[in-house]
Amino acid sequence: MRLLVLMCAIAMPLVGWLSQTGAFGPDQGTISNRHPTLLVAAGYAFSVWGLIFLLDVAYAAWQATGRRRADPVLGRVAPAAALGFALSTVWMPLFSAQLFGLCVVVIFGALAALAWAAVILSAAPGRGRLLAWLALSLHAGWLSLAAFLNLAQTIVAYELLSTSRMLGWSLALWAAGAAVLLALNWRMRGNVAYVAVAVWGLFAVWIKQTGWPLAGATTSAWVALAIAAALVLQTVALRLRMRHR
């Protein structure tokens, strides 16, 4: 299982590079621009995948060597990490093929697997597991936001709801996304890495939506910023509570 984690981690940047070269079809930016939503983030935000992939590969190589192979917590999260990495890899060619419905299932599956692993690692802290905690927390944090951005694009692509009056259902997605982010952060006792990458994405949504011509974009921008502020305040409160204990 440890080697499977490593193989899946290496596959992610390789498939990501192929995806950006157009090997599977249009790249993600091109497809995203075809289906504008009130939840889309500024393009620069997606550069965080470079850091996520780097840390995932480093963690995967680290957990497969030395004394870490006998760590029971790392062994417990290994299947979930492998599944999350595999689903993250599969998502990229599926998105290029514009199989949006399947993409939503895959990305929420990846989120569930990696969020579970991050929760387990947050409950079993220790310097010996810091790299695992950091890599999986960042990946889970980004997917916690990206999954709802993907869902919004799927709704627009298939015209499941109004594409001219998107604010109502977009606010519903924001509410669901905020609930997931706050609930997982609470379970992880104020996970700074998880929150940092989520705030990075939410701020990028604010940047994009403040200059976006779609009706309701300004409201969506401020909702994203409000969720980011709520996450930061929650994290501070949780960390202070832990310190007092």
UniProtKB/TrEMBL annotation:
Keyword presence, Nucleus: no
Key words of the record: Membrane, Transmembrane, Transmembrane helix
Residue ranges crossing the lipid bilayer per the database entry: 39-61, 73-93, 99-123, 130-151, 166-184, 191-207, 219-240
Highest taxon of source: Bacteria
Transmembrane helix found in the keyword field: yes
PANTHER family (alphabetical): SI:CH211-161H7.5-RELATED, XK-RELATED PROTEIN
Record's protein name: Tryptophan-rich sensory protein
Organism classification: Bacteria, Pseudomonadati, Pseudomonadota, Gammaproteobacteria, Lysobacterales
